């Protein structure tokens, strides 16, 4: 019992620290990308800025809503299943990949309910559309995941990492990595980690927002982004596998932040993609066919090798 | 019958003055029209309300006139009488007509409605005046409040939708405080010049230039070459500043941060030059009757000469960044198309008109400035969508830089102002309408002057026509393109208040 | 597509470039020469007296009516400025008063920091208008 509590404490601490660092990077680095100086507080390069913003939000109002509470719950529950490192996992099971994906889909649907709480009727259908598009980006991701599962012949995330001890899956599946990364990026953009969130009702309300509900919403969006990056790490980049003398945990942190910064850079360098038709076209005419071809090739290759012993 | 129809026909400026003619409009104007066209004057016709229908019918249907474009309508008070001024234009024959109608003081409302109904039979754009004042917010699907689109805080927009597509759009300018010409009544001339630049805060020099040139024409004053060069220089600098602000606005809406930041930096560079010349950024108060307020020193010339290549390079860079981005191009292409016919019918002018493929620029047509000595081209678009409107403005900026380069290289010596008595000027009493090519389009002034003072003054900005047009072109587009299309029309809120 | 990759590297390079913004109270940009700020009453450098004689032309010129001038007669019939008040809440900084002044007694300083909590503070008296605004060319 104590061990589990200790683990929970560790996981929460790691998440909180990383949210703090990511929030700081998000504000400071994006400012520098704009040739701005960014937030400065008491001269220490604005280290205390996320904390100040936290207190500012929480001092406005403490109203929460049942959906925000559920979002908070589920965004934490994901980490019971997804292993951050080899030891930091609460429940070990053989189908952890499937369970994690289910949690993720539930989380997105909850965000949809949360966005519909305004009285303005059109905002509901608007954000509903966006969530549906966001979910449709899961289809190419699922194809890529399926081909990974075929190669490694397991559904457990831990096993997938362990099977990459020789070489990472990115070498075997470059096309799958590409589609998975692009779909992650588009989800990242739709979630709106910087500036305004597209899921929030109303274009201008999303910019400001106050209160505890806003903090929870932001926290859960960070959780989704963390989840996506860690899944990408586990599936393609070898997870917590160490290289030579470098420990696996350090490798994981380095990979995590490199991907996060690359996502921020890409977000900055591209304009707003909020035209539905364009998003749907990117998805159905580019991502899904490429990932499907990748899946079929992998499937055919495995059949040829294992069933007919051709290769 | 024809005797009473055409009481007076005369060109607005100092030239033609015909009165009490007992012949038909066609036969009278036949010889005059060629002269009016060549001199670039406006035709002013005083009509009574009863004969208005026949006059407009003949103006529109007769192939010699072919007045097919509606420009504006405004009320004017002179003494105790109230007039309506209707501005129509013929693009084929290249001349514009002002119809001046006296309406009785007791039945202003009824007469106005009657005239609008009559005009609506001929011109589609008048539809806007018919429904204006009647909000439809109770049955509209989406109501866009003035605060929600950045930079456009002067009108409400009510939208009816079919799923994603806009079915109908209605603009209501109830919120705008409309300034009549009473506003100018007691003002002295120097204060009028100080005030008038507030009508266009995006490019403040153009109203001043327009007013001063109109008054100079009344005074029959010729400005020195140096003053004209300084005026041209400022006009082009303000044109660049306005266009680059437009680009930054578009980028802000599309959240394209690289181009947004770069374009704001370039605007800052231009505004600093302007501030060093005039002393202010937005409201210059720099043009005077007979010249300009201050001379340009050699230091400023050097600084302009230094920053020209930098500006050229950076603007080209922004253009490359924007046109290379295929996601951006895909978003802009095909949004808010203005076809040639609609653009002409609604009386749009300036870059918006040129984007739809009509080569019309007052700088080339009129010889008021010394633009004929300089070499520059007029960029023209093809289809008239958002992308064309942006690329036309980019090219115009580059052409403006070219003009500035030529101006600087042959800057003449001489006086920068001709001193006149500003507090007691002596005008030739007549009416004048004067137009100038401002960055949004055709900025026009109509004024009636007495011997010593200005009796009445009408200011007509080009943005109003773009706003009327937006009702027409928004229909059929997607909801997410609304702010993009409105921003791409380059509407200046100050002009809408003044109309 | 190539453009997008280039844009990516532009954004990446921006991190290491010098930022263009400034932190306002600490750093300042020099405003251009000839910019129009708050009015300033000139002082004769020899006799250290205010040049303005209080003729009141600027009061007539001002379209906003933000200037009030009063003069008084001293001994030997010499006219001296008694009171000069500028209401900043009305002033639009058009600069017409400077242009029309026959004595050349007023000019525009570079003073720009005009925000006040109390509306009374926006009425500037003679003694405040005589003061040069900080440095010769104030900053923005």
Structure explained in plain terms:
The complex is a heterotrimer of chains A (311), B (499) and C (140). Chain A is mostly helical. Chain A has one domain. Chain A has twelve helices and no strands. In chain A, helix 6 (138-152) packs antiparallel against helix 9. Chain B is α+β, with helices and mostly antiparallel strands and 499 residues long. Chain B folds into two domains: 2-130, Beta Polymerase, domain 2, CATH 3.30.460; 184-333 and 399-498, Cytochrome-c3 Hydrogenase, chain B (Orthogonal Bundle). Chain B has helices at residues 2-5, 25-39, 52-61, 108-122, 127-131, 189-196, 205-219, 225-254, 257-278, 298-324, 326-332, 340-345, 351-355, 362-365, 386-409, 463-474, 482-488, 493-498, and strands spanning 8-11, 17-19, 42-47, 69-78, 81-90, 95-103, 142-144, 156-162, 165-172, 287-288, 291-292, 431-438, 441-449, 454-460. Chain B has a six-stranded mixed beta sheet with strand order 2-1-3-6-5-4. Chain B has a three-stranded antiparallel beta sheet with strand order 7-8-9. In chain B, a hairpin with a 4-residue loop joins strand 5 (81-90) and strand 6 (95-103). Residues 1-23 of chain B have low confidence and may be disordered. Chain C is α+β, with helices and mostly antiparallel strands. Chain C has a single domain, classed as Alpha-Beta Plaits, CATH 3.30.70.3270. In chain C, 20% of the residues lie in helices and 17% in strands. Chain C contains four helices and five strands; from the N terminus they run αβαββαββα. The longest helix of chain C is centred in the first third of the chain and has 13 residues, at 2-14. Chain C is elongated and about 85 Å long. Chains in contact: A-B, A-C, B-C. The interface between B and C is medium-sized, with 25 and 25 residues.
């Amino acid at each position: 019992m104590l061990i589990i509590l200790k683990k929970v404490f560790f996981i929460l601490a790691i998440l909180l620290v990383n949210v703090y660092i990511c929030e700081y990077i998000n504000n400071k680095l994006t400012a520098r990308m704009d040739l701005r100086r960014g937030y400065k507080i008491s001269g220490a390069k604005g280290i205390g800025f996320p904390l100040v913003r936290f207190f500012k939000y929480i001092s406005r109002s403490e109203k929460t809503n049942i959906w925000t509470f559920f979002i908070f719950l589920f965004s934490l529950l994901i980490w019971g299943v997804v292993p951050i490192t080899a030891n930091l996992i609460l429940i070990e099971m053989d189908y952890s990949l499937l369970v994690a994906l289910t949690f993720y889909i539930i989380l997105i649907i909850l965000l949809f309910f949360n966005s519909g709480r305004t009285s303005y009727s059109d905002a509901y259908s608007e954000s509903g559309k966006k969530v549906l598009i966001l979910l449709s980006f899961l289809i190419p991701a699922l194809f890529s995941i399926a081909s990974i599962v075929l190669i490694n012949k397991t559904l457990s995330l831990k096993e997938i990492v362990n099977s990459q001890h020789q070489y990472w899956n990115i070498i075997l599946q470059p096309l799958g990595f590409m589609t998975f990364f692009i779909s992650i990026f588009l989800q990242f953009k739709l979630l709106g980690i910087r500036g305004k969130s597209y899921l929030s009702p109303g274009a201008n309300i999303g910019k400001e927002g106050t209160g505890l509900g806003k903090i929870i919403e932001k926290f859960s969006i960070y959780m989704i982004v963390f989840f996506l990056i860690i899944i990408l790490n586990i599936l393609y980049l070898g997870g917590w596998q160490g290289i030579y003398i470098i420990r696996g945990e350090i490798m994981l942190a380095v990979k995590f932040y490199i991907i996060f910064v690359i996502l921020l850079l890409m977000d900055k360098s591209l304009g707003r993609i909020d035209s539905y038709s364009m998003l749907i076209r990117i998805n159905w005419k580019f991502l899904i066919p490429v990932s499907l071809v990748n899946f079929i090739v992998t499937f055919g290759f495995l059949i040829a090798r294992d069933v007919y012993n051709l290769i | 019958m024809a005797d009473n129809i055409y009481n007076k026909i005369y060109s607005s400026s100092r030239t033609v003055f015909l009165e009490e003619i007992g012949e038909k409009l066609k036969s009278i104007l036949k010889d005059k029209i060629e002269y009016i066209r060549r001199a670039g004057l406006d035709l002013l016709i005083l009509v009574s309300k009863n004969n208005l229908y026949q006059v407009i019918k003949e103006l529109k249907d007769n192939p010699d006139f072919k007045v097919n474009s509606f420009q504006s309508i405004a009320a004017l008070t002179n003494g105790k009488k109230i007039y309506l001024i209707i501005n129509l234009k013929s693009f084929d024959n290249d001349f514009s007509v002002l119809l001046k109608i006296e309406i009785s003081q007791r039945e202003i409302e009824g007469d106005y409605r009657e005239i609008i109904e009559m005009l609506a039979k001929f011109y589609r754009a008048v539809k806007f005046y018919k429904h204006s004042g009647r909000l439809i917010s109770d049955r509209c699907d989406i109501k866009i409040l003035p605060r929600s689109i950045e930079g456009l805080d002067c009108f409400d927009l009510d939208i009816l939708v079919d799923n994603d597509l806009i079915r109908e759009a209605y603009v209501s300018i109830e919120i705008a405080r409309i300034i009549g010409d009473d506003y100018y009544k007691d003002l002295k001339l120097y204060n009028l010049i100080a005030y008038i630049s507030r009508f266009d805060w995006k490019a403040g020099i153009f109203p001043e230039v327009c007013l001063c040139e109109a008054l100079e024409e009344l005074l029959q004053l010729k400005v020195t070459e140096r003053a004209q060069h300084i005026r041209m220089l400022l006009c082009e600098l303000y044109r660049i500043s306005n266009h680059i602000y437009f680009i930054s606005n578009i980028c802000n809406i599309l959240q394209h941060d690289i181009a947004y930041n770069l374009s704001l930096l370039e605007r800052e560079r231009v505004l600093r030059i302007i501030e060093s010349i005039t002393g202010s950024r937005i409201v210059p108060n720099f043009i005077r009757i007979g010249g300009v307020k201050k001379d340009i020193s050699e230091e400023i010339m050097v600084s302009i000469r230094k920053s020209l290549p930098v500006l050229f390079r950076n603007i080209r860079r922004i253009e490359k960044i924007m046109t290379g981005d295929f996601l951006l191009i895909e978003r802009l292409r095909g949004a808010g198309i203005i076809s040639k016919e609609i653009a002409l019918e609604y009386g749009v002018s300036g870059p918006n008109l040129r984007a739809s493929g009509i080569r019309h620029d007052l700088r080339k047509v009129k010889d008021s400035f010394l633009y004929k000595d300089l070499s520059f081209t007029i960029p023209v678009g093809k289809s008239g969508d958002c992308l064309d409107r942006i690329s036309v403005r980019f090219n115009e900026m580059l052409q403006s830089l070219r003009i500035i380069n030529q101006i600087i290289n042959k800057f003449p010596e001489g006086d920068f102002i001709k001193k006149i008595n500003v507090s007691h000027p002596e005008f030739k009493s007549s009416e004048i309408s004067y137009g100038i090519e401002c960055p949004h389009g055709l900025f026009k002034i109509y004024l009636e002057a007495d011997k010593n003072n200005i009796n009445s003054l009408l200011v007509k900005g080009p943005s109003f026509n773009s706003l009327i047009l937006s009702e027409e072109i928004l229909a059929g587009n997607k909801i997410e393109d609304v702010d993009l299309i409105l921003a791409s029309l380059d509407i200046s809120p100050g002009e809408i208040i003044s109309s | 597509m190539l453009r997008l990759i280039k844009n990516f590297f532009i954004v990446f390079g921006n991190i290491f470039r010098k930022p263009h913004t400034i932190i306002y109270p600490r750093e300042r940009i020099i405003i251009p020469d000839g910019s129009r700020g708050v009015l300033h009453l000139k002082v004769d450098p020899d006799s250290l007296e205010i040049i303005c004689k209080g003729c009141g032309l600027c009061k007539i010129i001002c379209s906003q009516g933000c200037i009030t001038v009063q003069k008084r007669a001293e001994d030997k019939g010499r006219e001296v400025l008694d009171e000069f008040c500028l209401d900043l809440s009305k002033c639009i900084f058009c600069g017409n008063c400077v242009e029309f002044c026959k004595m050349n007694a007023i000019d525009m300083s570079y003073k720009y920091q005009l925000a006040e909590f109390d509306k009374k503070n926006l009425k500037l008296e003679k003694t405040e208008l005589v003061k040069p605004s900080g440095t010769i060319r104030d900053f923005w």
